[in-house]
Amino acid sequence: MSDRAPAGQFLDAAIDLLRRVRDEEADAIAAAGTLLADTVEQGGRLFAFGAGHSSLAAQDLVYRAGGLALMNLLAVPGVVGVDVMPAPLGSALERVDGLAAAVLDNSPLRAGDALLIISLSGRNALPVEMALHARALGVKVIGVTSVAYASETTSRHASGTYLKDHCDLVLDSKIAVGDAELTHDQVPAPFAPASTVVTSALLQAVMATAATTLAERGVEPPLLRSGNVDGGHDWNARVMEQYGDRIFYRH
């Protein structure tokens, strides 16, 4: 570790990752935003899923001021966030075969919809199976993952494959295996994860692309406004009424 303050080192590392994503994933971001715009325009619905801390980036897209009202959270009991007790149970459920198929078969997802699957490692059974099963249902899948894990870790799915192998589009977060940006001579483990910062920014770049693409096609993007600005609640009520059949988080 250098003499520089750790806060500055971490922020610099996050900025460097964001620059890499901006420069190296530009085409993939554009394609993902276009896919979402196509889905909205064609009457499809939007869903996002992530397990554990990857769920934070998924939840950041749902019922979000400045975000697309049509983005719904695909919730898998016990793995959305870190509120499950005991916490290690969430990690264990990610490795259970059959769970993703059961969730999808009992979800509103149907052919013509789009699903964002966020998994940093992309190696566990849950995201791999979810991508496989969703595509079999006719759902377009965008995977958000660190591609490095596929070459530096072993898959935990029976097929030996990773999330990235079963997607219509892949967005690479560039996060190093282990998700820790800093080290210190007196600290026994690497620390300071950046995956949430980078993945959330990457996904908001996709959402910005989708909204702009719709507008350029003459379609008003179904955006939500902050409820803390004057007129925000009335605006959101109008959007939710117009697209009520594609919004599931209010039922």
From TrEMBL:
Gene3D superfamilies: Glucose-6-phosphate isomerase like protein, domain 1 (3.40.50.10490). SUPFAM superfamilies: SIS domain. It comes from the Bacteria. Residues 36-220 form the SIS domain. CDD domains: SIS_RpiR (cd05013). Belongs to the UPF0309 family. This is UPF0309 protein GCM10010423_47230. It comes from Streptomyces levis.
